[in-house]
């Protein structure tokens, strides 16, 4: 009888260990998958901006998203921002301007349906005269997964950044 209990305990221990390993592996895989999905969202946003795809960029945001501008101490519905940005998108789409935008992050907190990310974006514009302007902006964003797609709910453009801050952040994979 004693041997049987020892054997049961041994089987239970092995099963528990295997289950724990399985759950840890599954969790690590899920975390990598979520990070990859978020990276894809930001990379797609960069592509839509570079293409002057106004509608495509708008779909990256939740319908009730908010834009917060830290240096201007204001916030408003994202539709107001898109009204301001429309002419810039049209100039890119027509070829008058060339734009490059990249995102990098220093801190990312997320689960399967929500994300808070802290980092920066780099914005480079070449106008119709060939003049180039570059901006580095400190950024926070809240995103939600809605119907299987990540959507930005709040974009907080905190403050102007610089190249040194930008260079210290990892490039999206």
What does this structure look like?
The chain is of the alpha+beta class and 173 residues long. It has one domain (2-171): Nuclear Transport Factor 2, Chain: A (Roll). Helix content is 45%, strand content 39%. The chain contains four helices and seven strands. The chain has helices spanning 2-51, 54-58, 78-94, 163-167; strands spanning 61-69, 74-77, 98-110, 114-126, 132-146, 149-160, 170-171. The protein has a seven-stranded mixed beta sheet with strand order 2-1-6-5-4-3-7. A hairpin with a 5-residue loop joins strand 4 and strand 5. The longest helix is centred in the first third of the chain and has 50 residues, at 2-51.
List keywords for this structure.
173 residues; alpha+beta; Nuclear Transport Factor 2, Chain: A; seven-stranded mixed sheet; 4 helices; 45% helix; elongated
Element-by-element helix/strand order? HHEEHEEEEHE
Summarize model confidence as the mean pLDDT: 91
The dominant shape is elongated
Number of domains: 1
Number of helices: 4
**Rg calculated over all Cα atoms:** 22 Å
Structural class: alpha+beta
Q: Quick one: how many beta strands?
A: 7
- CATH second-level architecture: Roll
CATH topology: Nuclear Transport Factor 2, Chain: A
Relative helix content = 40-55%
Query: Low-confidence runs (pLDDT<50, min 5 residues)?
Result: none
Alpha-carbon distance between the two ends: 57 Å
């Amino acid at each position: 009888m004693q041997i049987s209990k020892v054997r049961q305990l041994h089987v239970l221990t092995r099963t528990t260990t295997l289950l724990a390993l399985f759950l840890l592996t599954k969790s690590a895989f899920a975390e990598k998958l979520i990070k990859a999905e978020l990276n894809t969202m930001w990379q797609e946003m960069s592509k839509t901006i570079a293409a002057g795809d106004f509608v495509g960029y708008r779909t990256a945001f939740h319908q009730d998203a908010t834009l917060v501008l830290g240096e201007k101490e204001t916030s408003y519905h994202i539709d107001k921002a898109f009204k301001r940005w429309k002419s810039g998108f049209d100039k890119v789409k027509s070829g008058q301007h060339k734009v490059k935008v990249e995102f990098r992050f220093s801190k990312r907190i997320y689960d399967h349906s929500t994300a808070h990310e802290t980092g920066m974006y780099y914005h480079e514009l070449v106008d119709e005269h060939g003049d180039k302007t570059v901006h580095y902006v400190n950024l926070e964003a809240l995103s939600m997964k809605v119907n299987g797609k990540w959507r930005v709910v709040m974009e907080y453009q905190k403050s102007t950044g610089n190249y040194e801050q930008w260079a210290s952040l990892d490039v999206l994979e």
